[in-house]
């Protein structure tokens, strides 16, 4: 167990010497990354570089893959979330996730938002929680008169915001987003980007995106991942977003963001 003194109070989460294996394949090697609280951190890089793998390490989603094996530490409030005494279900309650494709439950809009709170034993005013969560996801005004409608009746962009409301309802500290706009049209994507910026006032957001323009628009910090000759992903460069896009330290980073490879 890492003690509290090893974790800077500004950091929402820290990866230390993080390695991920799928069976014998070394998917990601030696990632060291610090994520600032109440900021948006973007993970970018070519396909297969380990962005989503690293993101899933932050709330132990890789535990659900039988052949996955993790080495190293992921510190959350100074505690390694991979310590044997840590409950992964509790980790996922504190560190929520929004996936690439909207995945509402086959339930009403109301029940989609309330579900996580219910199974976590929420004792407060459920109607108020649903309302504030939908407001937090910038969806309340569009659905307040049809909360009994099925979540699938919403448009793709609305479904994704419903999934964000569902994540907010369990009151997480961190929200992970794995390419949250890749299945959406440009207008719906812009709504999600605007929402991310609003949410960062209260939450820490880590987003995987293939869209470098999106990373430049919304994020405060950007981590650029790439692959070595063995197809193992690694963190090439991490910096404030403006710095990484305008004066990258690495030639590999510069080649990627200028379109020379990737």
Descriptive account of the structure:
- There is one protein chain.
- The N terminus is likely disordered.
- A hairpin with a 5-residue loop joins strand 9 and strand 10.
- The protein has ten helices and ten strands.
- Strands 6-7-8-3-9-10 form a six-stranded mixed sheet, with helices on both faces.
- It is an alpha/beta fold.
- The protein has a single domain, classed as 3-Layer(aba) Sandwich (Rossmann fold), CATH 3.40.50.
- The longest helix is centred in the middle third of the chain and has 14 residues.
Briefly say what this structure is.
The chain is an alpha/beta fold and 262 residues long.
The main pleated sheet reads as: 6 strands, mixed
**How do the SSEs run, as a string of H and E?**
EEEHEEHEHHHHEHEHEEHH
> How many DSSP-defined strands?
10
CATH topology: Rossmann fold
- Through-space gap between termini: 38 Å
Instruction: Write the CATH architecture name.
Output: 3-Layer(aba) Sandwich
> Please, how many domains?
1
Principal-axes shape call: globular
Tally of contiguous helical segments = 10
Kindly provide the name of the CATH class. Alpha Beta
Strand content: 25-35%
Question: Helical amount among residues, as a percent range?
Answer: 25-40%
Flag low-confidence runs. Answer: 1-8
Class based on secondary structure composition and strand pairing: alpha/beta
**Arithmetic mean pLDDT:** 94
Strand numbers in spatial order across the main sheet: 6-7-8-3-9-10
């Amino acid at each position: 167990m890492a003690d509290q003194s090893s974790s800077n109070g500004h950091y929402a989460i820290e990866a230390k010497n993080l390695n991920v294996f799928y069976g014998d394949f070394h998917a990601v090697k030696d990632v060291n990354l610090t994520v600032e609280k109440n900021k948006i951190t973007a993970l970018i890089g070519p396909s297969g570089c380990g962005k989503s793998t690293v993101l899933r390490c932050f709330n132990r989603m890789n535990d659900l893959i039988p052949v996955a094996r993790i080495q190293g530490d992921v510190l959350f409030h100074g505690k390694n979330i991979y310590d044997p005494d840590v409950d992964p279900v509790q980790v996922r309650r504190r560190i929520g996730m929004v996936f690439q494709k909207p995945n509402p439950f086959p339930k009403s809009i109301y029940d989609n938002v309330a579900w996580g709170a219910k199974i976590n034993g929420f004792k407060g005013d459920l109607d108020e929680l649903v309302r504030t969560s939908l407001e937090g996801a910038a969806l309340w005004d569009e659905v307040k008169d049809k909360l009994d409608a099925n979540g699938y009746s919403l448009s793709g962009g609305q479904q994704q915001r419903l999934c964000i409301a569902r994540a907010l309802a369990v009151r997480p500290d961190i929200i992970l987003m794995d390419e949250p706009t890749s299945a959406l049209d440009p207008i719906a994507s812009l709504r999600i980007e605007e929402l991310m910026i609003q949410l960062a006032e209260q939450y820490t957001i880590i987003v995987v995106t293939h869209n470098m323009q999106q990373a430049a628009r919304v994020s405060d910090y950007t981590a650029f991942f790439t692959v070595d000759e063995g197809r193992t992903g690694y963190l090439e460069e991490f910096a404030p977003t403006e710095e990484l896009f305008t004066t990258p330290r690495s030639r590999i980073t510069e080649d990627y963001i200028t379109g020379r490879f990737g």
